Amino acid sequence: MQPAEVYADELVYAHEASAATGVPELVIRQWASRGRIRRYPGDGRPSGNGRLYRTMYALPEVQDCARQYKATPQRAPHAA
To answer: Residues 6 or more apart from 48 whose CB is under 8 A from it?
Structure first.
């Protein structure tokens, strides 16, 4: 996706992208840090819990990556 193809109504915060795709927010942030998706500056609106949302992501890019996402099963706790 080229930056010119992204529209303002397609930009979402990590929690909104997570709700739309079922991919955890942490994974979405990892994709952005590894260059698989691009970050966009947010509007800095408060979230209600004291945090500010500063980063937005293009929902079509997140959806493209989410199609190939497989959750890794967590290990069982070890017996003591």
So the answer is: none
Task: Please give the full DSSP string across 18-57, using - where no structure is assigned.
Answer: HHHH---HHHHHHHHHTTSS-EEE----B-SSS-B--EEE
pLDDT tens for the chain, residues 1 to 80? 555 577 888 899 899 999 999 999 999 999 999 999 999 887 666 655 666 667 899 999 999 999 999 888 877 777 76
pTM for this one? Answer: 0.75
**Rounded CA gap, 7 and 38, in Å?**
13
